[in-house]
Specification:
Blueprint: E1 2-5, H1 7-18, E2 32-38, E3 41-47, E4 51-57, E5 60-63, E6 65-70, H2 71-80, E7 86-91, E8 94-99, E9 102-107, E10 123-128, H3 129-139, E11 154-160, E12 163-169, E13 173-180, E14 182-183, E15 189-195, H4 196-205, E16 211-216, E17 225-232, E18 235-242, E19 261-266, H5 267-277, E20 287-292, E21 295-300, E22 308-313, E23 315-318, E24 321-325, H6 327-335, E25 341-346, E26 353-357, E27 368-372
Antiparallel strand pairs: 1-5, 1-7, 2-3, 2-6, 3-4, 4-18, 7-8, 8-9, 10-14, 10-16, 11-12, 11-15, 12-13, 13-27, 16-17, 17-18, 19-23, 19-25, 20-21, 20-24, 21-22, 25-26, 26-27
Helix pairs in contact: 1-2, 3-4, 5-6
Length: 379
C-alpha cells in the first residue's frame, strides 16, 4: 500500500471516521481505523458492531493495499501535520507516514480480525443537510440520557410521504420537530428509533454537502439499520447505526387539542430572566412563573434562603395561571427555538406547557414544539 493525499483532506476524513470510535473497545481491533487504497481512491472506515463510519476520498494511489492502525492516534497525528502533501506506505507490519520533514511510523493491527462493515440499506430519500442538522439538534434537546431506559435515549424518526417527524422525550419533556424532504417513494410510511447521540453527531457532521441521503432497512437483510450519506471535501461520507429495540411511548397525544391560556414573550428577555432568577433556586426545585395583567413574574427561592423575583412583559390571552418548571429544562427548550418571540400555551397549572416560536405574519407553523412537565412549587 502506498498513496499520497492532501493533508487537509486526509485530516478531515480521519477525524470524521475516528469520531465514533469506542472509548473502551471490547477488542483491540475495534480501536482501529481501516485504510483501504485502490485505483478508485482511498477509503477510511471504523466500526464497533453498532455504528460504522466510512469516508471515501481522492488520493494518488501507487500501490493498492489495506492497513489497520490506531484511529485516535492517526487522528492526532494528522491534526498536527504541516500543510503539505501526506504520503503513507505499508512496509511489513508498520505504516510510515511522511509530511514535509515530519515522519511517523505506526504499528498495524491484524486486518483479518477486523469485522466486516454493514451494507448501506436501500435509500429512502434526501433532505437538505443544513435543515436536517438543525432539526435534529432541536429534537435531541429532549432525549433521555439514562441508559437504564434505552428506548428514551433514542429519537423516533417518522417518515410519512414528503414529511419527516423527529420525536424525543426523557419523561419530563418532549420535543417534536417536523420538516419536509424528498422521498423516493412518495406514499411510503416508515418509523425508526435512532440513538440520539449518533443521530445528533451524524447530522452535524454531514453539512458540507447540500443534501443528506437517508437509507432505512425494510426487513430482511440489514434489518434494524439506518444509514446516512452526504458529500464532503474530497469525497463522500457514509455512516450506519443499529436501531434501538423497544416501543417508543405514544407521546403525540400529550399535545393538547386546545389551550385556555397563551402568552407571547420576547425570547431573549425570558432566557435572561430565567438565568438570573434560577441562580437562587436550590437543586431540583422549580422556578415559579405567574402569568397575569400583561406581565410574567418569575420567582425562585423560599423561606430563609436567598430569593429572587423578576418581571417580563407578556402578551397574555386567557386566564391567569401560576406554575413552575425545572429552570434548565425550560432554558433548553427556549434555546432550541429559532423565533425571536416564543409562545407558551397552557391548559391548567398542573398540566404541561407547550412552547414554540410565535407564528410570523404569514401564519406558517414554526415546525418545532417543546412540551415541558411542571414541577411542584414549594409552599
Amino acid at each position: 500500500m502506498k498513496f499520497s493525499v492532501e493533508r487537509d483532506v486526509l485530516a478531515d476524513a480521519v477525524a470524521w471516521a475516528a469520531r465514533s470510535l469506542p472509548v473502551r473497545p471490547s477488542t483491540p481491533v475495534l480501536a482501529g481505523l481501516l485504510i483501504e487504497a485502490s485505483d478508485d481512491g482511498l477509503v477510511l472506515s471504523t466500526f464497533d458492531y453498532e455504528t460504522s463510519a466510512r469516508a471515501t476520498l481522492n488520493a494518488q494511489v501507487s500501490d493498492e493495499g489495506t492497513a489497520l492502525v490506531s484511529g485516535r492516534l492517526l487522528a492526532d497525528i494528522c491534526r498536527s501535520l504541516p500543510a503539505k502533501p501526506v504520503e503513507m506506505v505499508l512496509d511489513g507490519s508498520r505504516v510510515s507516514l511522511t509530511c514535509g520533514a515530519a515522519r511517523f511510523s505506526l504499528q498495524t493491527m491484524p486486518v483479518e480480525d477486523y469485522p466486516s462493515l454493514p451494507e448501506m440499506p436501500e435509500a429512502a430519500g434526501t433532505v437538505r443537510s443544513d435543515e436536517f442538522s438543525h432539526a435534529v439538534a432541536q429534537a435531541v434537546t429532549a432525549a433521555g440520557r439514562d441508559d437504564m431506559l434505552p428506548v428514551l435515549t433514542g429519537v423516533r424518526l417518522e417518515i410519512d410521504g414528503s414529511s419527516i417527524s423527529l420525536l424525543a422525550t426523557d419523561r419530563f419533556r418532549l420535543a417534536l420537530r417536523e420538516l419536509d424532504w424528498s422521498p423516493h417513494t412518495p406514499d411510503e410510511s416508515i418509523a425508526a428509533l435512532v440513538p440520539a447521540r449518533v443521530l445528533g453527531d451524524t447530522a452535524k457532521s454531514l453539512t458540507a454537502g447540500s443534501e443528506v441521503t437517508i437509507a432505512l432497512s425494510r426487513g430482511g437483510a440489514g434489518e434494524g439499520i439506518i444509514g446516512f450519506e452526504g458529500n464532503a471535501p474530497g469525497g463522500v461520507r457514509r455512516t450506519t447505526t443499529r436501531l434501538l429495540d423497544g416501543e417508543f411511548p405514544k407521546v403525540r397525544a400529550l399535545f393538547p387539542p386546545e389551550n385556555l391560556t397563551t402568552a407571547k414573550i420576547d425570547k431573549a428577555a425570558l432566557i435572561e430572566s430565567v438565568k438570573r432568577v434560577s441562580l437562587v433556586a436550590e437543586r431540583n426545585t422549580a422556578v415559579q412563573l405567574a402569568f397575569g395583567d400583561g406581565v410574567l413574574t418569575l420567582d425562585a427561592g423560599s423561606g430563609d434562603e436567598a430569593q429572587a423575583s423578576e418581571s417580563v412583559e407578556a402578551d397574555i390571552d386567557g386566564e391567569d395561571i401560576t406554575t413552575g418548571f425545572n429552570p434548565q429544562f425550560l432554558l433548553d427548550g427556549l434555546g432550541a427555538i429559532d423565533e425571536a418571540v416564543v409562545e407558551l400555551a397552557f391548559t391548567q397549572a398542573s398540566k404541561p406547557v407547550v412552547i414554540q416560536g410565535a407564528a410570523g405574519e404569514d401564519g406558517q407553523d414554526p415546525g418545532f414544539r417543546y412540551l415541558l412537565m411542571p414541577r411542584r412549587l414549594l409552599s
